[in-house]
Amino acid sequence: GENVEQHPSTLSVQEGDSAVIKCTYSDSASNYFPWYKQELGKGPQLIIDIRSNVGEKKDQRIAVTLNKTAKHFSLHITETQPEDSAVYFCAATYSGGGADGLTFGKGTHLIIQP
Amino acid sequence: EAQVTQNPRYLITVTGKKLTVTCSQNMNHEYMSWYRQDPGLGLRQIYYSMNVEVTDKGDVPEGYKVSRKEKRNFPLILESPSPNQTSLYFCASSPPGGTEAFFGQGTRLTVV
Lengths: 114, 112
Known about the structure:
The structure holds two protein chains of two kinds.
Chain A: E1 4-7, E2 10-14, E3 19-25, E4 32-38, E5 45-51, E6 56-59, E7 62-67, E8 72-77, E9 86-92, E10 103-104, E11 108-113
Parallel strand pairs in A: 2-11
Antiparallel strand pairs in A: 1-3, 3-8, 4-5, 4-9, 6-7, 7-8, 9-10, 9-11
Chain B: E1 4-7, E2 10-13, E3 19-25, E4 31-38, E5 42-51, E6 54-57, E7 65-66, E8 76-78, E9 87-94, E10 102-103, E11 107-111
Parallel strand pairs in B: 2-11
Antiparallel strand pairs in B: 1-3, 3-8, 4-5, 4-9, 5-6, 7-8, 9-10, 9-11
């Protein structure tokens, strides 16, 4: 089955700096790679996703890159703000990407220092 | 409002006492799933369902049961809970075709 490794487990950055979280996956058949943000006391919420036919996707301060050859993908957050503090999960799946097939990384606790 | 609703949010129970955590979604999604979240282990899938009366095991199914008699509901059943099932549980739903999975608010279960 799929295995997703996520690094780092904790990331502390100064407000206004950039943050990068990296994930690798093992199954070359995986074709959908979402990122979820989990705020304290809440369930994970999708913030951005990318499919295997695309190398990069941006949404305002957030971007995701995918390298299919190396089987890794990354989340980039620019101009970090206090509200970016949360736990971030990457995931990969070979199916349609629904709730049945997601394999998650172990999560990154992002801390934005004022 | 589109949402996934879990109940209860918090539960403390004793070893061996059967319990059910309910999950309901109002988005007419085919796919539903249960995850447990433990420190340092991330989110691990327990069971999933691709439609009514269709369920399958995830990565950590031991000690759990599920049913999908109606499209909107996907309860998680612990027939004989043990302390190693103390965890934070999430239900999720999504439509088919590779789009967003919607998560509930979570149920924090403690088994003593």
